[in-house]
Specification:
alpha/beta, Nucleotidyltransferase, domain 5, 11 strands, 355 residues, 2 domains, binds zinc ion, 10 helices, six-stranded mixed β-sheet, binds 5'-O-[(R)-(carboxyoxy)(hydroxy)phosphoryl]adenosine
Protein backbone atom coordinates (compact mmCIF):
# COMPACT_ATOMS: atom_id res chain seq x y z
CA UNK A 1 0.00 0.00 0.00
CA UNK A 2 1.32 3.48 -0.83
CA UNK A 3 1.78 6.43 1.50
CA UNK A 4 -1.35 8.14 2.78
CA UNK A 5 0.46 11.48 2.49
CA UNK A 6 -0.08 12.34 6.15
CA UNK A 7 1.77 15.11 7.99
CA UNK A 8 3.81 14.16 11.03
CA UNK A 9 4.65 17.25 13.11
CA UNK A 10 6.95 17.70 16.07
CA UNK A 11 7.19 20.62 18.53
CA UNK A 12 9.90 20.96 21.19
CA UNK A 13 10.69 24.67 21.50
CA UNK A 14 10.08 25.04 25.22
CA UNK A 15 8.74 22.70 27.90
CA UNK A 16 6.28 20.55 25.95
CA UNK A 17 7.35 17.55 23.88
CA UNK A 18 4.60 17.22 21.28
CA UNK A 19 3.82 15.26 18.13
CA UNK A 20 0.74 15.16 15.92
CA UNK A 21 -0.53 13.48 12.78
CA UNK A 22 -2.77 15.49 10.45
CA UNK A 23 -4.50 14.40 7.25
CA UNK A 24 -3.91 17.36 4.88
CA UNK A 25 -7.18 17.04 2.92
CA UNK A 26 -10.51 18.69 3.79
CA UNK A 27 -8.93 21.70 5.51
CA UNK A 28 -6.74 19.49 7.68
CA UNK A 29 -8.10 16.67 9.81
CA UNK A 30 -6.40 16.08 13.16
CA UNK A 31 -5.78 12.34 13.56
CA UNK A 32 -3.75 12.56 16.77
CA UNK A 33 -2.13 15.01 19.15
CA UNK A 34 0.22 13.96 21.95
CA UNK A 35 1.60 16.51 24.40
CA UNK A 36 4.01 15.56 27.14
CA UNK A 37 4.24 18.50 29.56
CA UNK A 38 7.44 18.98 31.54
CA UNK A 39 5.79 21.36 34.00
CA UNK A 40 6.42 19.04 36.98
CA UNK A 41 10.16 18.89 36.20
CA UNK A 42 10.50 22.69 36.12
CA UNK A 43 8.01 23.66 38.84
CA UNK A 44 10.52 23.42 41.75
CA UNK A 45 12.60 26.13 40.02
CA UNK A 46 9.68 28.51 39.37
CA UNK A 47 10.38 28.61 35.63
CA UNK A 48 11.73 26.62 32.70
CA UNK A 49 15.35 25.40 33.11
CA UNK A 50 16.79 25.04 29.58
CA UNK A 51 19.16 22.17 30.38
CA UNK A 52 16.39 20.14 32.04
CA UNK A 53 14.10 20.88 29.07
CA UNK A 54 16.63 19.47 26.56
CA UNK A 55 17.14 16.29 28.57
CA UNK A 56 13.41 15.73 29.03
CA UNK A 57 12.77 16.19 25.31
CA UNK A 58 15.49 13.70 24.52
CA UNK A 59 14.06 11.16 26.93
CA UNK A 60 10.49 11.51 25.57
CA UNK A 61 10.56 12.37 21.89
CA UNK A 62 10.64 8.84 20.51
CA UNK A 63 7.75 7.65 22.69
CA UNK A 64 5.70 10.79 21.98
CA UNK A 65 6.06 10.32 18.20
CA UNK A 66 5.30 6.61 18.60
CA UNK A 67 2.12 7.43 20.53
CA UNK A 68 1.07 10.00 17.91
CA UNK A 69 1.42 7.40 15.14
CA UNK A 70 -0.42 4.75 17.17
CA UNK A 71 -3.29 7.12 18.09
CA UNK A 72 -3.67 8.05 14.42
CA UNK A 73 -3.71 4.37 13.45
CA UNK A 74 -0.86 5.15 11.09
CA UNK A 75 2.53 3.67 10.25
CA UNK A 76 5.68 5.66 9.41
CA UNK A 77 5.14 4.62 5.77
CA UNK A 78 1.81 6.52 5.77
CA UNK A 79 3.61 9.85 6.20
CA UNK A 80 4.12 12.13 3.22
CA UNK A 81 5.68 15.13 4.99
CA UNK A 82 7.52 15.76 8.25
CA UNK A 83 7.28 19.14 9.98
CA UNK A 84 9.12 20.53 12.98
CA UNK A 85 9.44 23.84 14.80
CA UNK A 86 12.80 25.37 13.87
CA UNK A 87 12.57 28.46 16.13
CA UNK A 88 12.34 30.63 18.04
CA UNK A 89 12.74 28.86 21.37
CA UNK A 90 15.33 27.26 23.63
CA UNK A 91 18.13 26.19 21.30
CA UNK A 92 18.89 22.87 23.01
CA UNK A 93 15.19 22.01 23.19
CA UNK A 94 14.55 22.92 19.54
CA UNK A 95 17.51 20.84 18.41
CA UNK A 96 16.04 17.65 19.88
CA UNK A 97 12.73 17.85 17.96
CA UNK A 98 14.23 19.25 14.79
CA UNK A 99 17.02 16.65 14.65
CA UNK A 100 14.55 13.85 15.35
CA UNK A 101 12.29 15.11 12.54
CA UNK A 102 15.24 15.46 10.20
CA UNK A 103 16.29 11.87 10.88
CA UNK A 104 12.73 10.61 10.38
CA UNK A 105 12.41 12.52 7.09
CA UNK A 106 15.82 11.65 5.67
CA UNK A 107 15.51 8.00 6.58
CA UNK A 108 12.33 7.81 4.50
CA UNK A 109 13.15 10.33 1.79
CA UNK A 110 10.36 12.65 2.91
CA UNK A 111 10.32 16.45 2.64
CA UNK A 112 10.92 18.31 5.89
CA UNK A 113 9.11 21.59 6.56
CA UNK A 114 10.64 23.84 9.21
CA UNK A 115 7.93 25.90 10.90
CA UNK A 116 8.32 29.16 12.76
CA UNK A 117 6.81 28.71 16.24
CA UNK A 118 4.73 31.91 16.07
CA UNK A 119 3.41 30.98 12.65
CA UNK A 120 2.36 27.74 14.31
CA UNK A 121 0.42 29.57 17.03
CA UNK A 122 -1.29 31.65 14.33
CA UNK A 123 -2.53 28.42 12.72
CA UNK A 124 -3.92 26.69 15.82
CA UNK A 125 -7.39 28.18 15.30
CA UNK A 126 -7.51 26.52 11.87
CA UNK A 127 -7.51 23.12 13.54
CA UNK A 128 -10.95 23.67 15.04
CA UNK A 129 -13.34 21.17 13.42
CA UNK A 130 -16.03 23.86 13.58
CA UNK A 131 -13.79 26.12 11.51
CA UNK A 132 -15.81 27.96 8.83
CA UNK A 133 -14.38 28.33 5.31
CA UNK A 134 -13.57 31.99 6.02
CA UNK A 135 -10.76 30.69 8.20
CA UNK A 136 -8.86 30.18 4.99
CA UNK A 137 -5.25 31.18 5.71
CA UNK A 138 -5.14 33.02 2.39
CA UNK A 139 -7.51 35.64 3.77
CA UNK A 140 -5.87 38.56 5.64
CA UNK A 141 -6.29 38.56 9.39
CA UNK A 142 -4.93 40.27 12.47
CA UNK A 143 -3.12 37.73 14.64
CA UNK A 144 -2.59 38.16 18.38
CA UNK A 145 -0.07 35.70 19.83
CA UNK A 146 0.03 35.76 23.61
CA UNK A 147 2.10 33.23 25.50
CA UNK A 148 4.75 32.88 28.17
CA UNK A 149 7.43 34.03 25.74
CA UNK A 150 5.59 36.30 23.30
CA UNK A 151 2.98 39.04 23.11
CA UNK A 152 2.75 40.31 19.61
CA UNK A 153 0.27 41.60 17.08
CA UNK A 154 0.62 40.76 13.38
CA UNK A 155 -1.08 41.50 10.13
CA UNK A 156 -1.13 38.19 8.27
CA UNK A 157 -1.68 38.15 4.50
CA UNK A 158 -0.93 34.50 3.95
CA UNK A 159 1.52 31.86 4.98
CA UNK A 160 4.99 33.36 5.47
CA UNK A 161 3.53 36.82 5.05
CA UNK A 162 3.08 38.11 8.57
CA UNK A 163 4.02 41.70 9.37
CA UNK A 164 4.77 42.58 12.96
CA UNK A 165 2.58 45.51 14.04
CA UNK A 166 3.60 45.68 17.68
CA UNK A 167 4.90 43.65 20.59
CA UNK A 168 5.64 43.82 24.26
CA UNK A 169 8.49 46.09 25.30
CA UNK A 170 9.21 44.04 28.42
CA UNK A 171 7.29 41.06 29.86
CA UNK A 172 5.03 38.85 27.75
CA UNK A 173 1.38 38.59 28.80
CA UNK A 174 1.89 35.03 30.10
CA UNK A 175 4.91 36.21 32.07
CA UNK A 176 2.76 38.94 33.63
CA UNK A 177 0.29 36.26 34.73
CA UNK A 178 3.05 33.94 35.96
CA UNK A 179 5.06 36.60 37.81
CA UNK A 180 1.95 38.00 39.49
CA UNK A 181 0.98 34.46 40.53
CA UNK A 182 4.47 33.85 41.92
CA UNK A 183 4.29 37.04 44.00
CA UNK A 184 0.96 35.80 45.39
CA UNK A 185 2.39 32.36 46.20
CA UNK A 186 0.12 30.64 43.66
CA UNK A 187 2.79 28.40 42.09
CA UNK A 188 4.07 28.01 38.53
CA UNK A 189 2.77 28.39 35.87
CA UNK A 190 0.23 30.68 37.47
CA UNK A 191 -1.89 31.90 34.55
CA UNK A 192 -4.42 29.15 34.90
CA UNK A 193 -4.66 29.63 38.71
CA UNK A 194 -5.29 33.37 38.32
CA UNK A 195 -7.92 32.56 35.68
CA UNK A 196 -9.71 30.26 38.17
CA UNK A 197 -9.51 32.58 41.19
CA UNK A 198 -10.55 35.60 39.10
CA UNK A 199 -13.91 33.99 38.32
CA UNK A 200 -15.23 35.00 41.74
CA UNK A 201 -13.43 38.35 41.87
CA UNK A 202 -14.38 41.90 40.91
CA UNK A 203 -12.26 43.08 37.95
CA UNK A 204 -12.78 46.72 38.90
CA UNK A 205 -11.91 46.29 42.60
CA UNK A 206 -8.24 47.27 42.53
CA UNK A 207 -6.83 49.80 40.02
CA UNK A 208 -4.04 48.21 37.96
CA UNK A 209 -1.79 49.99 35.40
CA UNK A 210 -2.55 49.69 31.70
CA UNK A 211 0.78 51.00 30.37
CA UNK A 212 0.85 52.14 26.72
CA UNK A 213 -2.86 51.28 26.30
CA UNK A 214 -3.82 54.70 25.02
CA UNK A 215 -0.81 55.28 22.79
CA UNK A 216 -1.40 55.16 19.05
CA UNK A 217 1.25 52.46 18.36
CA UNK A 218 0.65 48.72 18.81
CA UNK A 219 3.23 47.94 21.52
CA UNK A 220 2.40 46.53 24.94
CA UNK A 221 4.09 46.82 28.33
CA UNK A 222 3.30 44.52 31.22
CA UNK A 223 6.27 44.89 33.57
CA UNK A 224 4.51 47.58 35.62
CA UNK A 225 1.89 45.03 36.65
CA UNK A 226 4.14 42.92 38.82
CA UNK A 227 5.39 46.06 40.59
CA UNK A 228 1.78 47.11 41.19
CA UNK A 229 0.96 43.66 42.58
CA UNK A 230 4.04 43.67 44.84
CA UNK A 231 3.27 47.19 46.11
CA UNK A 232 -0.35 46.26 46.80
CA UNK A 233 0.59 43.12 48.74
CA UNK A 234 3.24 44.97 50.79
CA UNK A 235 0.81 47.75 51.61
CA UNK A 236 -1.80 45.26 52.80
CA UNK A 237 0.80 43.47 54.94
CA UNK A 238 1.82 46.74 56.57
CA UNK A 239 -1.80 47.16 57.54
CA UNK A 240 -1.88 43.63 58.91
CA UNK A 241 -4.13 42.34 56.09
CA UNK A 242 -3.35 38.99 54.43
CA UNK A 243 -4.14 38.87 50.73
CA UNK A 244 -6.41 35.86 50.59
CA UNK A 245 -10.09 34.92 50.15
CA UNK A 246 -12.18 37.59 48.42
CA UNK A 247 -9.32 40.11 48.36
CA UNK A 248 -7.11 37.61 46.53
CA UNK A 249 -9.90 36.86 44.04
CA UNK A 250 -10.42 40.62 43.47
CA UNK A 251 -6.69 41.14 42.93
CA UNK A 252 -6.53 38.25 40.43
CA UNK A 253 -9.57 39.57 38.56
CA UNK A 254 -8.09 43.08 38.46
CA UNK A 255 -4.68 41.93 37.16
CA UNK A 256 -6.36 39.73 34.56
CA UNK A 257 -8.64 42.57 33.44
CA UNK A 258 -5.68 44.92 32.94
CA UNK A 259 -3.92 42.35 30.72
CA UNK A 260 -7.05 41.46 28.73
CA UNK A 261 -8.02 45.09 28.21
CA UNK A 262 -4.53 46.12 27.05
CA UNK A 263 -4.34 43.22 24.58
CA UNK A 264 -7.81 43.55 23.11
CA UNK A 265 -7.76 47.33 22.91
CA UNK A 266 -4.72 47.18 20.59
CA UNK A 267 -5.99 44.13 18.67
CA UNK A 268 -9.31 45.83 17.89
CA UNK A 269 -7.49 49.05 17.00
CA UNK A 270 -5.40 47.08 14.48
CA UNK A 271 -8.51 45.48 12.96
CA UNK A 272 -10.09 48.88 12.53
CA UNK A 273 -7.06 50.76 11.24
CA UNK A 274 -5.87 47.99 8.93
CA UNK A 275 -9.45 47.44 7.74
CA UNK A 276 -9.09 43.73 8.41
CA UNK A 277 -12.15 42.67 10.41
CA UNK A 278 -10.82 39.21 11.30
CA UNK A 279 -8.93 38.51 14.54
CA UNK A 280 -7.19 35.20 15.25
CA UNK A 281 -5.84 34.47 18.71
CA UNK A 282 -3.15 31.98 19.68
CA UNK A 283 -0.72 31.10 22.46
CA UNK A 284 -1.16 29.86 26.02
CA UNK A 285 -2.88 33.03 27.25
CA UNK A 286 -5.58 32.57 24.57
CA UNK A 287 -6.85 29.79 26.88
CA UNK A 288 -7.78 32.47 29.44
CA UNK A 289 -11.55 32.51 30.01
CA UNK A 290 -11.84 36.26 30.39
CA UNK A 291 -9.77 36.94 27.26
CA UNK A 292 -11.93 34.50 25.28
CA UNK A 293 -15.23 35.95 26.51
CA UNK A 294 -14.15 39.56 26.10
CA UNK A 295 -12.67 38.95 22.62
CA UNK A 296 -16.00 37.46 21.52
CA UNK A 297 -17.95 40.33 23.10
CA UNK A 298 -15.81 43.12 21.60
CA UNK A 299 -15.73 41.30 18.25
CA UNK A 300 -19.54 41.16 18.11
CA UNK A 301 -19.78 44.79 19.16
CA UNK A 302 -17.23 46.04 16.62
CA UNK A 303 -18.05 43.78 13.67
CA UNK A 304 -14.85 41.73 13.91
CA UNK A 305 -14.90 37.95 13.33
CA UNK A 306 -12.95 36.41 16.21
CA UNK A 307 -11.31 32.98 15.97
CA UNK A 308 -10.03 31.15 19.01
CA UNK A 309 -8.14 27.87 18.99
CA UNK A 310 -9.69 25.06 21.03
CA UNK A 311 -8.26 25.46 24.57
CA UNK A 312 -5.98 22.42 24.26
CA UNK A 313 -4.33 23.95 21.18
CA UNK A 314 -3.58 27.35 22.76
CA UNK A 315 -0.52 26.17 24.68
CA UNK A 316 2.34 24.57 22.76
CA UNK A 317 1.33 21.57 20.65
CA UNK A 318 2.26 19.93 17.37
CA UNK A 319 -1.14 20.20 15.65
CA UNK A 320 -0.52 23.90 15.06
CA UNK A 321 2.87 23.07 13.51
CA UNK A 322 1.21 20.54 11.21
CA UNK A 323 -1.46 23.09 10.20
CA UNK A 324 1.18 25.70 9.33
CA UNK A 325 3.19 23.09 7.39
CA UNK A 326 0.00 22.12 5.55
CA UNK A 327 -0.53 25.76 4.52
CA UNK A 328 3.07 25.97 3.24
CA UNK A 329 2.62 22.81 1.20
CA UNK A 330 -0.81 23.88 -0.12
CA UNK A 331 0.62 27.12 -1.49
CA UNK A 332 3.70 25.39 -2.81
CA UNK A 333 5.84 28.07 -1.24
CA UNK A 334 9.30 27.68 0.16
CA UNK A 335 11.90 29.96 1.68
CA UNK A 336 15.58 29.70 2.65
CA UNK A 337 16.18 26.41 4.43
CA UNK A 338 18.58 28.07 6.86
CA UNK A 339 18.01 25.94 9.92
CA UNK A 340 16.87 22.71 8.35
CA UNK A 341 19.67 22.00 5.92
CA UNK A 342 19.48 18.38 4.81
CA UNK A 343 21.40 18.39 1.53
CA UNK A 344 19.86 15.42 -0.23
CA UNK A 345 16.24 15.76 0.87
CA UNK A 346 13.75 18.37 -0.38
CA UNK A 347 13.62 20.97 2.37
CA UNK A 348 11.33 23.90 3.00
CA UNK A 349 11.38 26.32 5.90
CA UNK A 350 8.70 28.76 6.86
CA UNK A 351 9.77 32.37 6.84
CA UNK A 352 11.97 33.75 9.59
CA UNK A 353 10.38 37.15 9.00
CA UNK A 354 8.17 36.66 12.03
CA UNK A 355 10.95 36.77 14.62
O1 LIG B 1 2.08 28.97 24.45
P1 LIG B 1 2.64 28.50 25.74
O2 LIG B 1 2.39 27.06 26.14
O3 LIG B 1 4.20 28.65 25.82
C1 LIG B 1 4.96 29.62 25.20
O4 LIG B 1 5.18 29.52 23.95
O5 LIG B 1 5.39 30.53 25.96
O6 LIG B 1 2.09 29.49 26.87
C2 LIG B 1 2.29 29.31 28.24
C3 LIG B 1 1.75 30.53 29.00
C4 LIG B 1 2.13 30.54 30.48
O7 LIG B 1 2.63 31.82 30.81
C5 LIG B 1 0.79 30.28 31.17
O8 LIG B 1 0.68 30.86 32.44
C6 LIG B 1 -0.19 30.92 30.21
O9 LIG B 1 0.33 30.58 28.93
N1 LIG B 1 -1.55 30.39 30.38
C7 LIG B 1 -2.59 31.15 30.82
C8 LIG B 1 -3.71 30.29 30.90
N2 LIG B 1 -3.32 29.04 30.48
C9 LIG B 1 -2.00 29.14 30.15
N3 LIG B 1 -2.65 32.44 31.18
C10 LIG B 1 -3.83 32.91 31.57
N4 LIG B 1 -4.96 32.14 31.69
C11 LIG B 1 -4.94 30.84 31.35
N5 LIG B 1 -6.05 30.10 31.44
ZN1 LIG C 1 4.35 28.85 22.23
Amino acid sequence: MGSRGLILAVESSCDETAAAVVEPGAGGVVLSSIIHSQVAAHAPYGGVVPEIASREHLARIDAVVGDALADAGAAPADMGVVAATYGPGLVGALLVGLTYAKGFARGRGLPLVGVHHIEGHLHAALADPASPPSRNPGQPFIGLVVSGGHSALYRVDGIGRARLLGQTRDDAAGEAFDKSAKLLGLGYPGGVVIDRLAQRGDPAAIPMPRSLRDRTHYDFSFSGLKTAVRTFVEEQRRRGVDVQGQLLADLCASVQEAIVDALLHKAMLACRRQQVPVLVLGGGVAANSRLRAEAARRGAEQGVEVYLPPRALCTDNAVMIAMAARAWRAQGRSSPPALVAAPDAPVEASSAALS
